[in-house]
Amino acid sequence: MWKLLERVTTYYHSEGLLRLIGGIWLILGQNVHSACFTLAQLWDDICEREYSLRTIFVSYYRGFKPKTYCWLDIQNNDPNCYAADVGEYAGLNSGYEDVTGNDYAFYRLSKRYTDAIPDLYGTIENGGFVPVDTQENSILDLVRTHRIIVLKPMTGSQGDGFYRIEYNGSGFLINDELRSGQEVQDTIEKLTNYTVTEYITQHDYCSQIYERTPNTIRILTIIDPRTHESVVLRACHRFGSSDSYPTDNWSRSGYAAPVDVDTGRIKEIILLNEIGQRFYSEQHPETGSQVTGITVPYWEKSKDVVRRLADLHRPAPIIGWDVIITEDGPIIIEANTPGDHLIQFEKGLYEDARFRRLMNTQATT
């Protein structure tokens, strides 16, 4: 309390009364907005009836959404060890979201420093293709040349709005569904603020587990306030499913298994039963392919690449990197301010002293 009063007094003397009142008003407005948003989410969860009322209210009371509360098994663990849903990462990457939250900016800034970034062919703006690093002036010409391309929103998450467009020599496919050239054009005309990139072919070990989607690894890095070095904190391997298709997003009912950061060994897939209890599987639930025990190829190289990119983008002290392993090495397809909780499947982030230091540093700035 005394530190807060001291900061308020200092701000008053340096900025004056009106700016102090404006700052307090802004903070109050943000808190009211956050409270209303949380209440709206609470009401949605009650109406959906996916979880018991007790689970819903207990989870929100402890700062978690019901889904996260069950998946992280908070009821059997110390909730203080986990980064919660409600406002936990707010402000960590403040001022740098235009890079970490925008694929176009991320690709353009990062590509000159590493080859482990997909080729950016252009963007889609108000339904029109705008070339960047390609001679083709239309999407149809582009996909005829490269056979497969990927369209994604510049911003957003959870696999929404993902299109894989393919040319098989006689026709076009969008997410494996046959389409005419005119239908492809009609789809493009409805889009804006999209990136158009090369399609990354994943390593054979991923295709053997689940071949219908890319199967990415979320690698979490932070900038340790004590050493000022980038470190890999956690990793989790995602796998697609028939429900998550055409992406592997866990939020869309894909599957996920923690990865040992030191060795790259994939652990058990974590699942949830009908009554909200966790259980585990060593095989992919749909294909039956072995998952547990596989060591991710190019694991040391993958960690090296994300650490170097974390150093490059160090104004964002915590980044979740989405990585695809190819036959030639890792490719980084996105940088995100972490929002899901795959990285806490095994244990809470606050159990790591480096994460606690980062959060404590942010709390005092």
Question: Explain this structure to me?
Answer:
A hairpin with a 2-residue loop joins β5 (172-174) and β6. The protein has a seven-stranded antiparallel sheet, sandwiched between helices. Strands 10-9-8-13-14 form a five-stranded antiparallel sheet. A two-stranded antiparallel sheet has the order 11-12. It is built from eleven helices and 14 strands. The longest helix is centred in the N-terminal third of the chain and has 32 residues, at 17-48. The chain is α+β, with helices and mostly antiparallel strands. The protein is globular. The mean pLDDT is 86. It has three domains: 2-81, no CATH class; 97-116 and 202-363, D-amino Acid Aminotransferase, Chain A, domain 1; 120-198, no CATH class.
Can you give me a brief rundown of this structure?
The protein has helices at residues 2-15, 17-48, 53-61, 66-71, 97-100, 103-110, 139-146, 181-189, 204-209, 299-312, 353-363, and strands at residues 120-125, 128-131, 148-153, 163-167, 172-174, 177-179, 194-198, 217-223, 230-239, 255-258, 269-272, 278-281, 318-326, 329-336. The chain has 365 residues and is an alpha+beta fold. It folds into three domains: 2-81, no CATH class; 97-116 and 202-363, 2-Layer Sandwich (D-amino Acid Aminotransferase, Chain A, domain 1); 120-198, no CATH class.
Shape: globular
SSE succession: HHHHHHEEHEEEEHEHEEEEEHEEH
Strand portion, in percent? 15-25%
Strand order of the largest sheet: 2-1-7-3-4-5-6
CATH class of the largest domain: Alpha Beta
**Care to count the β-strands?**
14
